[in-house]
Design goal:
Structural class of chain A: mainly alpha
Distance between the termini of chain A: 55 Å
Distance between the termini of chain B: 70 Å
Order of helices and strands of chain B: HHHEEEEHEHEEEHEEHHEEHEEE
Largest sheet of chain B: 9 strands, antiparallel
Structural class of chain B: alpha+beta
Radius of gyration of chain B: 25 Å
Number of strands of chain A: 0
Low-confidence stretches of chain A: 78-93
Strand content of chain A: under 5%
Number of helices of chain B: 9
Helix content of chain B: 25-40%
Number of strands of chain B: 15
Oligomer: heterodimer
Number of helices of chain A: 7
Chain lengths: 160, 356
Amino acid sequence: MIGRRGASLDELEALYRSRFDVFARVAASVTGDPERARDAVQDAFATAVRKRRSFRGDGPLEAWVWRIVLNAARSDVRLSALAVAVEPASPNGQPEQDAELRAALALLPERQRTAVFLRYYADLDYAAIGEALGIATGTVAATLNAAHAALRIRLEEVRT
Amino acid sequence: MTELDRASLERLLPAMPDPADWDDVLGRSGVQQRRHRLLLVLATVVLAAAATASAFGMRAVFLDKGFIGLPPVGATPSAPESGELEIFYRVSVRAWVYADGRLIWLGGRSDLPESANPLSTGFLEQRLTPDGVELLRSEIAAAGDFGNPDELAPPPGRPPCPSGVTPSEGNCQLPTPEPAPDAPIRVPFHTQIVVAGLGTLVHVDHARDLTRLQARLSDPGSWLPASAWADQDIRAYVATKYGVCYSGWPPDEPVEQSRIVSLFPASTRDLLGSATERQGPLFGSPGHLRPSHEYCFDATTDEARALVAALDAAGFRRKGAVRLNYDILDGGPDPEGALYFEPYLPHGEITCSVCG
């Protein structure tokens, strides 16, 4: 079967409007700053609009856009050379547990942390995560397993 | 156990300071401004066409075959007279794409029934829809990185070596090997792809992508959908005015204007004497390209016809199957110079239709 070619402007707009918040907040986990994350998402969607004819349709459009967004966010980190940390703007409810989880997530390698947010916050399946991160689907499972293991150990260390 | 549920993760992520803004995305992509511009141009075209048709009630005469030189009497010029250039490319064809949808092209496909002759198509015209222009633009925009023309791979410093001749023997250079299909590539100087608002395509991540783009631009009818075409029929492009230029020979050596003008028929000297000097196309061979010096003026179609008639009547020799040229003779066997006609394109420039 031949994959379809190109994405329409309407499809990209619908994706942007329905998922902007998810894109931007996950991007913030990469940039460490919500303003820069928003800027990265805006730039990434502008790139997607310009390059929409090159979308090959091998996987979901959203996964293709995630890859552009994450590249934009990482590029921003490289440009600013800032350390990345997940910082909530205003923690609410369960502050102690949130702080523990936040600290444990911040210690994960960037790919593992992003995989966690894509799976459990953005609700992407393994194939889409693989496309977004540029890794094989099998590697996604291994990455998430490693993240789980690291989080479990760190959370247990904190709580004992 | 880890608490990786959506609610927990959401609490850890910062809220966005500003809401979604799709217009900002379009602005950054360059699409929004272009759409507005296209709509404005389209409205202008529609109004102008309607006004012209109702005012004159004339029937247009379009040519279904290219021509070299001046159009047959009565041929309807391309409308509107001017246009905003959106895309220019030189691959195996040269093409100019305008915001009003006109796709004007030249060369490369002389096997077409619409070609002027076996050596040249002549200037031909088709019409895209605004979406068609956008599709073409997007195809190019997605191909690679843009910059200015100086970033194109430079021309070879020396001419290519003939078979069996080494570089040291022939002051020449061996051909550059073809890049691997997966290799990144600097766009070679003989390919030029320019998009308004983006600049010149200068770098492509994979050589095969450039090859594919060149093939697509050479024959957009092979991949653009039917909805991209307002009129896919090929017809001759008929200009409303012509650039007329003359120079001595060889053209890189400046020559006194009055000396050349004196060689033309007396009835044409006032007109030809009004030409102004300009730097023309590069002349010479690779490694030895030099600017040419020529004198040019603008002529209406009627003025150009009168000039052709005077030159023909005076026995001037026409030459060239690709462009209307005349040799300028002074009694000797070799020409003293040459005069040529080039049609003005809608963006207000002439091109060198015999240049590679």
